[in-house]
Amino acid sequence: MQDPFPSHARGPRPQGLTLPRIGLYGLLVVAALFFLLPAYVMIVTSFKSMDEIRAAQIFALPHMLDWSAWSKAWSSACAGVNCTGVSVGFFNSVKITIPATILSVLLGAVTGYALSFWRPPGSKLLFAAITIGGFIPLQIFLFPVVRGTAALGLYNSLAGIVLVHVIFGLPLTTLLFRNYYASIPVELFKAARVDGAGFWRIFVSLMLPLSLPMLIVAGLMQMTGIWNDFLLGLVFAGRDNLPMTVQLNNIVTTTTGQREYNVHMAATVLTAIVPLVAYFVSGRWFVRGITAGSVKG
Amino acid sequence: MSVPVSLRSIDIGYGTTAVVRDLDLEVASGEFLVLLGPSGCGKSTLLNAIAGLTELADGEIWIGERNVTWADPKDRGIGMVFQSYALYPNMDVEKNLSFGLTVAGVPKAEVARRVKRTSAILQLDDYLKRRPSALSGGQRQRVAIGRALVRDVDIFLFDEPLSNLDAKLRAELRVEIKKLHQELGSTMIYVTHDQVEAMTLADRIAIMRNGVIQQLASPREIYHRPANLFVAGFIGSPAMNLIDGTLLHAEGRCRFQSDLISADLSAYPFISAAPEGDRAAIVGFRPEQIMLGQGSGHPEIPAVVSVIEAMGPDTVLWCTAGRTTLSLRMPGDFGGRVGDRIVLGLDLAQASLFDKASGARL
Prior knowledge:
heterodimer; A: 297 residues; mainly alpha; disordered C terminus; B: 6-stranded mixed beta sheet; 8 helices
């Protein structure tokens, strides 16, 4: 044992790099490498020619940066008889993700705000129902929702897939915002009411600006969730609006002639790049939003 | 302009969770009324009901000539100041002040004029462009008061506005609020659990317990003639000295009898005629109503000094007499020591006499 009271102790305690620390960092580095490995293989393979790929050295670096697989993946890779690459899917995904994210976040914010502050009769019951709804796997709802959208005339349409994403996103966003607003002192709401502000005025002028961190967190979660969705896009979007994930799958599973692994890898990276960039750009805000409420401003 | 407030047989909450029950309260126009009581007595709930932020289960609220029971907060002509300030954190001071006016659609020039006037009254001119987070507690509370002031409200409602401030600021702002009331002459209703605030600010104090008003009277009346044992114990620091005993009738005269004193009550101002028959009673003396030394002409009891608290302007003496501990207030330059044997004189004409069973003043 070390002497806990060394007589020369003075000033800050020395922060030596102890053995357990080194072990901990070592473990973290290994874990990071392990998770980065598939990404490395994907990127490396996408730059290789087919001859190089057939050499079956998946960890080897490519001899030269060959961008042809990328351009093919983007604009001319074939899914069945359609040889348009993932670009069409990319724009479809953009058209689905942007309105569905904005709507589900804003609707969740309004619902959470109403549940937190206005507490209409039955609001507790409604909140319980929403929470439970959020835990039930969405596959269970598929068939009823298919019938529902068909009855509304929205099945196989852009509006339909956006609506479905908004509906399935609402439990999560409502939960997030209700709990976020629960941390805002109710006196603030009372003061605004005494000042004469109504439901929407309080929401727009006071609550929305205060919930910027949560807007970013919920927006990011919804955006990645909707962008990465496969099942709902496949079922509800219709042939003209298939999202990028579905198109990627179609390209990868199309088997005519040889499998173009470099093209498939490039297409996969292209599909994954959007949420990845979003996290890199807003990571700081994301952490701030997650921890918001624990620290009073 | 000042306006009266009238609460008529108000109930708040239902059944076992009833917070306020069958409460009547008339606040005169221009009056400064303080609702005082321990936490959980329903005083804040009552204030929220007056503001229109809490629904009534029964009863009516009238402000001036209008029945506002079903009216929205904005239509009641009230402004409210909260303990937590409740400033809008995303707006600077100027926007905080002007928010209510903007919502009401007041023209811009008029808004600017009123904000300027308000910030001048509250000395906030230098802080108009600051966010609330960049203000001190005292400044924040001044902005909160300004938010009510700027709207030219008839009634000011204060919900423990000074409780979050440190002692020095609290004393300063207390004086500012008093001055403000004198200048504006508006009706003000002020909730607090601090008896010093209540005593110094109020025209009348309503002392509440469990949703019921125990006494509604001027601070002076409440201090010197508490209506029951609860009020007597709640108001005053140190608390009133209470001595258990019996009220005896003998030969048409009333006496108070206990193991400490036996005294004639003919000088005591009974509320009504002295009650018939013998009964258990409690007599109460404020610390400054007990005199030191012999020859006062009043009933005397011997005691021993057990603790001396020097407060500066005065000294509080804790004495033991028999099994009872009594406190008395002496001048700041009191020179005695712990262990001194003293004689206390009790003047029953100044005392308060309570029925032990009901706690009510006799």
